[in-house]
Amino acid sequence: MKNPYFSVVIPTLNEEKYVPKLLGDLVRQKTSVPFEVIVVDSYSEDETIASVRKFKDSFISLSIFNTKIRNQAYQRNYGGSKATGKYIIFIDADSRVDNRFITHLYKSTKKYKNLVFLPKIIPQEQSYIDDTLFTFGNYFVELSQIIGKPLPTAGCMIFQKDFFIFIGGYKAVDSKKFLYPDDHDLILRTRKAGVIAQYLRDISVKFSLRRLKKEGRLTVSRKYFISTIEMLIKGELQTRVKYEMGGQYYVDSHKADKYSKKKLGYYLKKISELKDQILNFENTG
């Protein structure tokens, strides 16, 4: 087999309903760029592994591993240790990509020749509120790379393999205490190593809204608002916010999708004000 250019690492835990959709997207890639797929499961109780095995003959290489440790950072590191590609695409099992994702990403790595890439994140389901939330989120991710207090993109980050190994990979932080702590920690260490992540405006990863539906848009928006403020101002997360891994957590998620539009509008207004303050600071600085 020709050496893969990309290694797609997917950590899973009870993702029988979601990971087949992502794998289906990868099967439909219109590309000549060789890539391998590595699924790192943590002994799911559902049919996750069986659903993945159905794609065994659909890829040049599809590897399935099991780890006793149920931790997304650990599973990503394990997958990274098995990767043979030049770049590692770390992507969540409930994410989606279009059929030109690999091709466009390949062109970007050749164009920018960077060590770390952050794709734009868009909602899988379109609505005014969700589009607005994600627009603000993407803006702050891109801006944060410039001002030296970097934010990660939730759901997908791409690392040149040698650099990923050099900085020590993900740190297994208790994911029940902070919002995406392993992603934040890794992107901070990336910057401390002298690397500014390349934000990709023209390459999108479709983000699952199941967390918003499970916890309510107001609750999740408040978490993102607080974490964004803390990262941009203080450079680190300090507020404790709950985060759960695993598809089983999102069963009947639609039942919790009730929120106050008035309160959510308040947070959107505050985020907009923060954006304006940062723009004014840039213009006067």
UniProtKB/TrEMBL annotation:
Alphabetical UniProt keywords: Cell membrane, Glycosyltransferase, Membrane, Transferase
Domain of life: Bacteria
Localisation: Cell membrane
Pfam families for this protein: Glycos_transf_2
Gene3D superfamilies on file: Spore Coat Polysaccharide Biosynthesis Protein SpsA, Chain A (3.90.550.10)
GO cellular component annotations of the record: plasma membrane
Keyword Cell membrane in record: yes
Originating species: Candidatus Roizmanbacteria bacterium RIFCSPHIGHO2_02_FULL_37_24
Segments forming domain Glycosyltransferase 2-like: 7-127
Gene Ontology MF: a single term: glycosyltransferase activity
Keyword Glycosyltransferase tagged: yes
Full protein name: Glycosyltransferase 2-like domain-containing protein
Matches recorded under SUPFAM superfamilies: Nucleotide-diphospho-sugar transferases (SSF53448)
Main subcellular localisation: membrane
